[in-house]
Amino acid sequence: MFDRVNDAISGGSESSDADAEHLDDLLRDGEELKHALANGGTIEHTKDGRTTTIESGGDHGAFMLVTDERVLWVLGDQPDEAEIAFEMTALQTSHVRKGLLNSKIEVQTYDETVVFDPDEGDVEAAEDYIDKVGSSWSEMSAALAQARDAIAAFEDACERGENPDQHALSARSQFSQARRCATREDRAPEEKIRAEIDTVVEELDHARVNAWLDRAEAAIETVETALDEERYGDACGEYVDAAEALEEARDTIGDVDRVPVGAQKRLDSLDDDLRTAGEAFLDDAAGRCETALSAEDATVAVDAWEDAFERYSAAADAGWNGHAPVSEGALEYQLAWVTAGLLDAMSAHAESLERDGDDAEDDDEAGDYYEDAEEWFERASELATDHEHHAPDDYEDAVDRVEEKRLESAGWEFGG
Questions:
Q1: Residue 299 CB neighbour total at 10 angstroms
Q2: 124 strand-pairing partners
Q3: Which residues pair with 53 in a beta bridge?
Q4: How many beta carbons lie within 10 A of that of residue 152, not counting itself?
Q5: Cα separation of 252 and 197, whole Å?
Q6: CA distance 313 to 334
Q7: Who's near 43: CB < 8 A, 6+ residues apart?
């Protein structure tokens, strides 16, 4: 009556050997049957605190099949699918309830329990296999769950702009723990357990590469937006972060065993985008310098020099070195030259205002010119103070000179 499943218990009730030849519909490809137990047709199942007795009915029996991957309970002699199936990775405990006449085997997961009362098969051998091999699977699964948590933390830290390396180290530590589970029990299917581990190792490899590429891509988008809004400090800071993220991605691609499909192409594309943005930024700065040099109007020259100064200062403050590409030394030299040009333009504009004050026939008009000239000399003095190789003394003397003229035009006298 129970031909197909009974054939799995070769040698009858006195043997614990099992043969899966007739269980193709129940077992996965490569899954190996290790033990088979049978009874008259009942399975006791508890789930979420509720216990039910499952019966096969008629003359059909119930069977408990232990494979190298799962524990299955089936009904009838022609089962196409399991009534209940526990993955070895989900097992928590198993034990044999010994009685005067017979012994029952109890198997538990986090939220389910099955009690089986066998008439045939070696219950002690089956439980021992479930306990030892199931522990290898479940502890491996727990280690991989923690590894996946570490991978998620890696991705989150990278997205927030933090250093995520500690999370990668944590994941690797869990892989070591999982690999120990694969070799601890001789009967455990080592190749299958290692295959599960390799899957998560690949997830870490992909996460490491993609997270750095995502970070670079987000930074490049911010660079472009910030440049459009003339937020040069933000743009240069994000440029450096993007460059560092791309370098990390490049190193990671060379380090991992499994590179995501298309990762190298994406890296090359982002590298081109970043270089284009950086070169355009520097070209615009150079263009502002050319405008300043050719300007006939002092205010136009000052505006152009100031814009170039802001760009080069932002790049220097962000730590550009080899970016775009421009070396730190070349950037410092350019910034010093632009600073000198800006100081000359400020001074020339202030002197022009001072001459306009000298030529003014009206004292009030002269006072206004002198006041404007004084402000420009003060700006030049502050700029020179903040940059080495530029002495503020000449501008401070000019401030004193113009201030005296302004006070004289207002009719103010010392002691008066």
A1: 11
A2: none
A3: 44
A4: 14
A5: 20
A6: 10
A7: 53, 54, 55, 62, 64, 73, 75, 83, 84, 114, 116
The full DSSP string for 31-99 is --EEEEEEESSEEEEEETTEEEEEE--TT--EEEEEESSEEEEEESSS-SS-SEEEEGGG--EEEEEE-
Question: Burial, 239: exposed, middle or buried (Cβ in 10 Å; 0-12, 13-18, 19+)?
Answer: buried
- pLDDT digits over 355-391, tens only? 888 888 788 888 888 888 888 888 888 887 876 666 6
User: Which regions in the chain score pLDDT beneath 70?
Assistant: 1-22, 24, 77-79, 100, 387-391, 411-416
Question: Count H helices, E strands: the chain?
Answer: 10, 9
By three-state DSSP, how is residue 120 classified? strand
The whole-model pTM stands at 0.81
CA distance 164 to 344: 48
Q: DSSP string covering 124-176, please?
A: HHHHHHHHHHHHHHHHHHHHHHHHHHHHHHHHHHHHTTS--HHHHHHHHHHHH
* DSSP line for 274-292: HHHHHHHHHHHHHHHHHHH
Closest CA to 84 of 114, 104, 58: 114
Which of 223, 178, 238 has the alpha carbon at shortest distance from 203?
178
